[in-house]
Amino acid sequence: MLQQIMNSPTMDYMQRGLAAANLRQEVISNNIANVNTPKFKRSDVIFESLLAKELGLDDDKKKLKMVRTHDRHLPMAPPDSRAAARIQLDDSTTMRVDDNNVDIDAEMASLAKNQIYYNAMAKKIGGYIQSVKTVITSK
């Protein structure tokens, strides 16, 4: 029973979001560390758009939405279609003469945004676990 509660879809989304924020922190740190490296191309992490697509919240209105009408019906998406954070190389731009495309101001802003996102996700997970603990220990 506890395994079902802790493996709920909500907890799964939050864990994957926290893992994506952790990966994004590493990628941004790598971009900042290589700000003066000639021919270095920055990387970015894509996750939120993939999660929105998995949840059916993307802007693709042309697809017909599938609905499970019975618990014994097969799931709509295969189990391996879960959104996972991916690193994407940005080689389309060049900021300087040495072919480096890292903008330190943009990277620092992304770093601050990611720290706020990470802290919010950690707080949300902590609150979820606290609420499960409260339900278990209440009389």
Q: How are strands sequenced across the largest beta sheet?
A: 1-2
What's the β-strand tally? 2
Shape: flat
Strand content: 5-15%
Compute the separation of the termini in Å. 18 Å
Number of discrete helical segments: 4
- Low-pLDDT runs: none
Order of helices and strands, N to C?
Answer: HHEHEH
Give the radius of gyration: 20 Å
Largest sheet geometry: 2 strands, antiparallel
Structural class: mainly alpha
| Portion of residues within helices | 40-55%
Average pLDDT level? 86
3D architecture notes:
The chain is mainly alpha-helical and 139 residues long. The chain has helices at residues 2-6, 9-33, 48-55, 104-137; strands at residues 43-46, 86-89. It has a two-stranded antiparallel ribbon.
Structural descriptors:
flat, 139 residues, 2 strands, two-stranded antiparallel sheet
What does the secondary structure layout of this molecule look like, with pairings?
Elements (H helix, E strand, L loop, with lengths): L1 H5 L2 H25 L9 E4 L1 H8 L30 E4 L14 H34 L2
Antiparallel strand pairs: 1-2
Helix pairs in contact: 2-4
